[in-house]
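Narrative summary of target 7.
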Amino acid sequence: MIYEDYTLDEHGFYGHLVKPDHPKYTGVIVLSGGEKSLLPGKSVAKEFAKEGYTAMAVPIFGAKGLPDSADRMPLDPVLKAAQFLQAYAGIHKVVTYGMSMGSLFALLVGVHNPDIAGVISVSGTHVVFEGELDAKHNSSHSLITFEGEELSYVPVDLSRGVREAFEEAYQDEEAVMKAVVPVEQCHCPVLFLGSDADEEWPADHSAKVLKDRLEEAGYPYSYRNVIYADASHMMGMMPQDLRGKFFMKAAKLTFKSMKEHPQACQDAVLKSRKEILDFLTYVEEGSYDINRT
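Modeled conformation, tokenized:
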């Protein structure tokens, strides 16, 4: 494999590219959080590369030139990274892959770049929410900025506990209406993956809201919504080195479902991975019906 690093100062975005020896024509922008998150984007990019896809991991905070925390994170560098990968030698199509808060960036890149070939949202949310100074304190600013302006956001009281805080925040209909991601403005197939037992937020509710928006808009492209019962927030392209006993033991301390429903969580990881790879095959070759039951 070939590894290339990109910096904000030199390239206009921060990223880690992983290219397989025999790449396919589709590239993947990987958006899974900060530069030093529990689930490093570079490790996820390697998983895509193992399957033949050139992947660019793009941190959205915690790298030089980016915010230190998940607060007022700029969308602009992510859009530049997508444009860069679209122009990369041998790449004909680019799909965005977002996990957790990275799902917002994956969706928004699809909204603002009409040439994106597919969007994958894993354990995502349907609204831009308030930025975080740390795990228990809000910033009173938006999570995301675009062209120097803060996007509309839904206030979240993190002192109440993560999932409870988001469930309450999503009841603010006026704020949600202003901050919801206009997924219907994408121009490509979309895949939503989530769990009804997500510890961070009700990802199943968010996926349904976004799917309903596509249905109501008469969205002309394929879309698919898959919800796993009793599974954790952690699913998707999990790196092999993060599926070992040490990681699982540590994850169980944070993610309740992993402790209470280990088999369901393990099954969801494997099944969601297959859904993602099937989706990428669909984008590259058009070889299956994304709306299959």
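The mean pLDDT is 89.
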